Amino acid sequence: MVPFVADARENSLNPSVFRSKKLTSWLGRTGETQFSLFCIVAAFATYACMYGFRKSYTVGIFQQTEVLNIGYKAALVASQIIGYTLSKFIGIKFVSEIPAKNRAFAILALIAFAQFALLLFAIVPEPYNIACLFLNGLPLGIVFGLVLTFLEGRTVSEALVAGLCASFIFASGFAKTVGKTMLENGVSEMWMPFESGLVFVLPLLFSVWLINHIPPPKANDESRRTKRQSMDRTARWAFVGKHWFGLVILAAVFIVLTVIRSIRDDFAVEIWKDMGYQAAPEDFTQTELWVMVVVTAVAGATFLIGSHRLAFLTTIGLIVVGLLMVIGSVISRQNQMLSPFNFMVFFGIGVYIPYVLFHTTVFERLIAAYQEKATVGFLMYLVDSLGYLFYLLILLSKTITLPTGVQDERQSLLASWVGDYGFLVLLESISFYSAIACVALCCLLGAYFSWTLPKNRGENPADLKVQPVEAGASECG
Description:
Elements: H1 10-13, H2 21-29, H3 32-52, E1 66-67, E2 70-71, H4 72-97, H5 103-123, H6 130-140, H7 143-148, H8 157-184, H9 192-199, H10 201-211, H11 219-225, E3 230-231, H12 233-242, H13 244-266, H14 268-274, H15 281-300, H16 308-334, H17 340-370, H18 376-399, H19 413-418, H20 423-452, E4 473-474
Antiparallel strand pairs: 1-2, 3-4
Helix pairs in contact: 3-8, 3-10, 4-6, 4-18, 5-6, 5-9, 8-9, 8-15, 8-17, 13-17, 13-18, 13-20, 15-17, 16-17, 16-20
């Protein structure tokens, strides 16, 4: 077992007052396997706890009122998504520039603000409390990028980030289970989100304390995956300008995945109901548990591929497999070949395989293959912000109900296309046709990157010649 040798910079990156000397010493002498397990557990727990402050409210029905002809629950979801989307755009700059020593404190501060917003949601009368979910979403979109920065740039980053991504598959269902259980035990819909958040406070504090011990990548990691560093505005634009064609297509595919995944996640209760099934609290956790196991195994295994070029192209192929599962799941359910439970599982696997691969492998191997100094966090927030923006447009076009007598020609194009047939029809119609389009885009991606990606570059330290982005990059921390 090769011992993990901590970089000398770790003491400058993490304030020692928040760290245990014994744990730091153990991380410095432990083997790679134990170190990787520690990283996975710390990252999984941290981000899973965040979901307790974000997703539990979605199990509420909130049927009591409408706001501007929008259903109250849809208005709540839209309000939070507006904040979350804005947070993603802010995160493009924030995550790529924040010093490493400030990450742990930033995670706690952002989630504390989100919990305070849930307290306001319980206190402020409806419908004015809709704005409180905007405040709740505003800080939470930055948390993933902060956690990701602890894990990227390592030879086993795919496995580590797969563990992180497992958290948002599992934790979404678990947060709903916590929320539903509280509702069934007499907690009101307005107080349920805040009280659900309280359940996760102590686990969050412990998990952030753990993740704050993770040292920076070793020299061997940096030689194989390139050194990850902060990027200022000039560096970000230089990278995008150099690789704009491939990034545009990747962004288009990710936008579709974000929309499909978000509809399934935010309106799971309504989708189960549209299938004629009244979901029990444990159903939300059980379906996501199966999805998590399969997706984590697939995404995590990509670290075994040594060649960055081969790993990237293999990932594009796996994305196509996931999209075909989405198409097949829709056809099978409509032909009564899948039960509601199995549909949610197979459809979830199909969506999350490509969605998680973007987080674990696509940008990680793209940066490593080109040997340029950049961060996965920047690229993820670039496409993530666009994905949530498009989801917000779809959501608003679905939920806005025009007053009686308004002519059809005055409806928005999206509203007339989506119609008003329920969230199951919305999910299946968008998923089926957009997945077909994305398969075609992935074929184009495969051809383009087969031509442009360097061959046999970045796998062996002796072959490396790091090419920094032209300007603006500064060493992290």
